[in-house]
Amino acid sequence: MKQVKILTFAALLLSIGVVLPGCKKFLTQDPISTVSPNRFWQDQNDANTWMAGIYNQMQSTLSSAFFDWGEVRSDNVRVGGTGNAQQTMISNTLSGNDADINGITNWTNLYTTISLCNYGIKYFPQMIESNADGGAAKYRDYLGQCYGLRALMYFYGLRVWGKLPLLTSPIESLDQETQVARSPVDQVRKRIESDIDSSILLIGSTTTQRFYLQKAAVYALQTDVAMWFQDYSRAITASQNCITESKCQYVNNISEWKSIFLDPANSNEAIFNLFWSVAERGGGVGVCSKVGSASNTNQYEPRTFIWQRFKERVDPTTQKPMDGRFWAVFDTLAYNTEELYDAAVVQLGKYSPWKANAPQGTGFTFQGNTDCSAAIPIYRFADVMLLRAEALAHTGKYQEALDIVNNIRKRVGYTVTAKLSDYTDDLTAGIENTILNERQLELLGEGKRWFDLCRIGKIYDYSDNGYGYLKTIMNPILSTTTGGIQFAGINMGRVLFPINSAAFNANRKLLGDQNPPYDE
Question: Is the pTM of this model over 0.70?
């Protein structure tokens, strides 16, 4: 395999505000950065290596960030450890130059992934045209993956920081202009939607590959983007395409539900997962240190009310808990009262197998932080279906929306159904709230809840009219959190993350464009 130094690539990334820690390798195989068409992009081995590098880099990007960006500041979790970063995140006291959270607010890994996609988007068309090494069909699929993965990365960035620098071409020369201002939200949205459209035209249709992007996953992303911008008609169309393309079916019982996380390659509900393997990467994935580890106290714990809501889902006749997710994510023997739960160091068992030869609900086999392998779902069937249910509710198809909620419940043993007669006031708002509550339980620990809080109501509106659902849920919690800053007035801007100060030092076109109320 060709050896290419990464020094030039690192220097170029530094100049646009993407700060690399030294010159560490970011590909599992031979690192590629200063790319010359006459030395690379020659054959299928080159193409395979490049795609392996993109997925490896995306694993680095989302290893902990999927949780820090999409879960931590929501009502799902409380502080489990004693670190300053946890308290900063939970209390909503972020800043742009805080050593404790620099790794969370830094967009280095995000833009490195985007940059690698940009190379593929430039060079794969040439390989398709020449049918290099007889691999035109493969390169076409890879090109579709590059568009889809770039869209996914920009979608994360859009939700976390709002406006973003849009980089759509590879940086191959120190003579290129690398000082890039942030583009407005509408322009970033158009880029994401355009990349999704391009991906759908190119990407393959396999339904057996759960660890690489395929067409069903792109339709899932399209559904998510549409729901973020409250384009319900598009979300309905995209979700139906995802259903058709994925050929997913609901699992039949709680053991099969558990397999979504333990064995997604063989799950009927898995769509797109990122798999972190200690054997391949070393060091473990961040999810263990976040919510469930054999090494030490995990950083965060699910809040008591979530445990209580599962516990209250009982059989009307026997009064015994009947939602299997209760014992699929919690040790229901160790925490069988609210008092015990509050006093315990609670571990989330969602990504860990039940203890061998023990009754379900009596504990899990957790991995140590450095031994942790996990398959984190980026998109899965229930996620897409519950988004579809919301879109149906907003277009007046109330019974169809409730049918989805009831199917989600039934497959895990909870047979108490939601009925139209349960709602006496605003049907849309009432059913939407039911769906959001179900999403909170179903997707706990998957990096979805914060984004759900933010996308309901008027988004990117930092007046008193914006983010009504977020304020209703989070401000009462923040009012009782030590040092907590509520979402109100100028602090409405805290819905977004601060831009890390290192980016301003590297990119002069960012100066004066920090997200308020943060300082540069």
Answer: yes
